[in-house]
Specification:
Elements: E1 9-13, H1 19-28, E2 39-43, H2 49-59, E3 70-74, H3 80-91, E4 98-103, H4 111-114, E5 118-119, H5 133-138, H6 141-147, H7 149-152, H8 162-175, H9 180-192, H10 200-210
Parallel strand pairs: 1-4, 1-5, 2-3, 3-4
Helix pairs in contact: 2-3, 6-10, 8-9, 9-10
């Protein structure tokens, strides 16, 4: 059987809900996913410079029993500083380490990181969105503003689900291929939505009015 894994760095268009599908693929590739100390799986609301430095340190450790260590990182937002901090590690993975980054829109990553990676498709990687993009585009502007409410809700820590927001924006992009003004609003929102102190509500409202 031909291996689905080529290279050491893989980008998956998906969210944390795609982790099980990825682990299933690894099992079919002969990787033990239960009780494997060399398999590191983590989800992050925002993957920043401190997370990148920790990942670099972990990647430098020797495998405990197998030939390689495997890192599965799911995040809706990876800062540019974090990506730059990982470039050398990803270019020359220590101890033949293998990395999988699950992110809703891999095309938003720095080209220097993407050039080191292979795109990996999973059958179930395209997660369902809280807001149906096709219905959103077909609705009136006022209705679209109402449809944003599930995305704007905050959790107990006063945080919004950035993964759900970015997944929605990526899904919406596919519905707006010929709507240039709407696409610009989507790109702008996706670019700034993960910034600290970003005004999420106005960014999404602008998208709702322009698509």
């Amino acid at each position: 059987m031909k291996s689905a894994l080529v290279g050491n760095i893989h980008l998956v268009a998906g969210t944390s809900t795609s982790i099980d599908a990825l682990l299933g693929l690894l099992e079919r590739e002969g990787v033990e996913t239960r009780g494997n100390a060399d398999l590191y799986v983590r989800t992050y609301q925002r993957f920043g410079i401190d997370d990148a430095l920790e990942l670099r340190e972990r990647a430098a450790l020797r495998p405990t029993r197998g030939m390689r260590r495997i890192f599965v990182i799911a995040t809706p937002n990876m800062t540019n500083e974090a990506q730059n901090a990982l470039l050398k590690t990803l270019e020359e993975p220590p101890a033949d380490a293998m990395f999988f980054f699950l992110i809703p829109a891999p095309e938003t990553l720095l080209s220097t990181l993407r050039s080191r990676a292979q795109m990996l498709s999973l059958d179930s990687a395209r997660a369902e969105t809280l807001v149906d993009a096709e219905r959103f585009v077909a609705a009136s502007p006022q209705k679209r503003l109402d449809m944003l409410k599930p995305l704007l809700e905050k959790d107990e820590d006063d945080r919004r689900d950035l993964g759900a927001i970015i997944t929605f924006l990526s899904s919406l992009e596919r519905q707006c291929e010929k709507r240039q003004e709407g696409l610009r609003a989507i790109y702008r929102a996706r670019k700034y939505i993960g910034d600290k102190g970003a005004l999420v509500k106005p960014l999404l409202e602008q998208v709702a009015l322009l698509v």
